[in-house]
Design a protein that fits this description.
The chain is an all-alpha fold and 396 residues long. Helices cover 83% and strands 0% of the residues. The N and C termini lie far apart (48 Å). Pfam families: MFS_1 (PF07690). This is Arabinose efflux permease family protein.
């Protein structure tokens, strides 16, 4: 078994950070292309929106068992295999006009993202300890947000100049580059292999689900990221079809909101030593105030500038909550880091996909006020969970 050489540790860490945003790249790069895909493929908006939800569901479900796989069979082989298949599946997506084939490839993209990202999350727990581990896990969530920031910005220009297929050609090239570098510089970091037995996995999952702080953390991660995906599902259609702006402008909007998510992550890292639950409650309170303000202003001001301004502030609070809870959950069980990371991501992204797609399907947002309604549902659910945590602590 090829193990990671100490001299390559820095390069391998950089490569791990490069793989982590893959899920965000795969979801966000084609956001500005979604309206054009619907037109070119002669499909309703909901059919194209489903490609994003399918990815998130398969990505979430995969993480349930991806963690146990990388804890049993290692991080390196799983990562290499995933990157190789990424190249193939992205190329197939770019070359087809069949929506069923696109759906199938999006399922595979989600599965491969699950394996690749879980293996790299566990990498940081394997290689680093103590405060350094805490530091890298916090940075990891910030780096993960790079994908949603740069992907739609790039995707807007790709769509304008080359069409929606170019997004997936670029993803195939990026995957190929990472695969080559991984084969040259990386290696296995798993020191103790956990048995891949159903009874062992059931015990581990049972332990984690019974840890209420871990369980509530997974729920909060899912609701926080659902705010981002909710806007992603409806934002491009509102900006391009309802407001009449170009796909490049839609890309810029996604870039700005990606920066908001990253800003929340940086705030989470800056306040990492502050009391945990109080800062989460303050963030949720500020979030609800912003959403209520968005409601009120929507009756007087409703344009692309007000939409983006409110969404930016709300996404900052969502990124802050996500960064804190995700870092906490991944480091909660260091002896089963792969399983813990996979379970956290799995539950979070299933909640994200189901809740965000459900809200879009019910509300069908076309104006700023309806976007505020969707945000309010998510913010209120977050408040409910935090209230349950407070009540539970009061009874202990």
């Amino acid at each position: 078994m090829r193990t990671l050489k100490e001299k390559n540790q820095f390069i391998a860490t950089v490569l791990a950070f490069a793989v982590i945003p893959m899920s965000g790249l795969a979801t966000d790069i084609y956001l500005p292309s979604m309206p054009s895909m619907a037109t070119e493929l002669h499909l309703p908006e909901s059919s194209i929106q489903l490609t994003l939800s399918i990815f998130l569901i398969s990505y979430g479900l995969t993480q349930f068992f991806a963690g146990s796989v990388v804890d049993s069979f290692g991080r390196y082989k799983v990562s290499v295999f995933s990157l190789a298949l990424f190249v193939v599946t992205f190329l197939i997506t770019a070359m087809t006009q069949n929506i069923i084939v696109i759906y199938a490839m999006r399922v595979l993209h989600g599965v491969l993202s699950g394996f690749a990202v879980v293996s790299k999350r566990a990498f940081f727990v394997d290689v680093y300890e103590g405060e350094k581990r805490k530091h890298y896990l916090s940075i990891m969530t910030i780096v993960w947000s790079v994908g949603p920031i740069i992907a739609p910005f790039i995707g807007g220009y790709l769509q304008k100049n080359f069409g929606w297929q170019s997004n997936f050609y670029v993803l195939a090239g990026y995957s190929l580059l990472l695969l080559i570098l991984e084969l040259i510089f990386s290696g296995e970091t798993l020191k103790i292999r956990n048995p891949f037995h159903i009874d062992f996995l059931i015990r581990e999952y049972n332990t984690m689900f019974r840890a209420k702080d871990f369980f509530y953390g997974m729920l909060m991660c899912g609701l926080s990221y659902a705010m981002v995906i909710f806007f992603n599902l409806c934002g491009a259609f509102i900006i391009e079809h309802k407001m009449g702006y170009s796909e490049v402008i839609a890309g810029y909007v996604s870039l700005i909101l990606g920066l908001a998510w990253m800003t929340g992550g940086f705030l989470g890292k800056a306040l990492i030593n502050k009391a945990f639950l109080p800062k989460i409650r303050y963030a949720n309170f500020i979030q609800l105030i912003l959403i209520i303000s968005m409601f009120a202003f929507s009756y007087y001001i409703s344009n692309i500038y007000s939409l983006v301004a409110f969404a930016f502030a709300i996404h900052v609070t969502a990124g802050f909550i996500f960064n804190n809870y995700f870092s906490y959950c991944i480091g909660r069980f260091p002896n089963s880091a792969g399983i813990a990371g996979g379970l956290t991501g799995g539950v979070a992204f299933i909640i994200t996909s189901a809740v965000s797609y459900g809200i879009v399907a019910v509300i069908k947002p076309e104006i700023q006020l309806q976007v505020a309604e969707g945000y309010f549902v998510l913010g209120a659910l977050g408040l409910l969970i935090l209230s349950m945590i407070k009540l539970r602590k009061a009874h202990i």
